[in-house]
Specification:
Blueprint lengths: L7 H8 L10 H11 L4 H8 L3 H29 L2 E5 L8 H12 L7 H12 L3 E2 L2 E2 L3 E5 L5 E5 L4
Helix pairs in contact: 1-2, 2-4, 3-4
Length: 157
């Protein structure tokens, strides 16, 4: 075994990987876990008895599956959130906190963030949909029952 690459079985066991409960295949989990610990693709390929190109492909698939899983969780949380505020393109970012607070008041949900913190959370989560003070693409701001704010791009309908 390559001295610079941790044992994949040990890494997965220590992280609590369960192949029956994961969207990742065991090989994807192995590659992702080893890459996250700094192992080079070539070294992983040597340890696992395959090519660097195959490791690259497995890693790309694993990262895509993780991204899809995160999106699925965010979608499910948005569906369950008692507060959903649609923010139209063209809205001034400075108006967003009042929109969120009003919807939260109606649903009797407390948000512990100040207006500047709400703007920062929305701006950070929205990525390119917010530039400066402007909302440039529709957004859906969800607030969970415990006051956590989540932001997703809306569909504009």
């Amino acid at each position: 075994m390559d001295e610079g690459v941790p044992d994949a079985d040990e890494v997965l066991a220590s992280a609590g990987f369960d192949a029956d409960e994961s969207v990742l295949t065991r090989r994807q989990a192995e590659v992702l876990a080893l890459r996250e610990r700094g192992a080079a693709q070539a070294a992983i390929a040597d340890q696992l008895g395959t090519s660097r190109a195959n490791i690259s492909k497995v890693e790309a698939s694993a990262r895509e599956n993780v991204a899809k899983s995160r999106e699925t969780v965010a979608f499910a949380e948005a569906l369950q959130a008692p507060v959903r505020v649609e923010i139209d393109a063209g809205t001034d970012l400075y108006d967003v906190p009042d929109m969120v607070y009003a919807a939260c008041d109606e649903a009797n949900v407390k948000v512990s963030l100040s207006a500047p913190e709400v703007m920062k959370r929305v701006s950070d989560a929205a990525g390119s949909a917010v530039r400066g003070r402007g909302v440039h693409a529709p957004l859906l701001v969800s607030v969970t029952s415990d006051g956590d704010i989540q932001v997703r791009e809306g569909d504009g309908e």
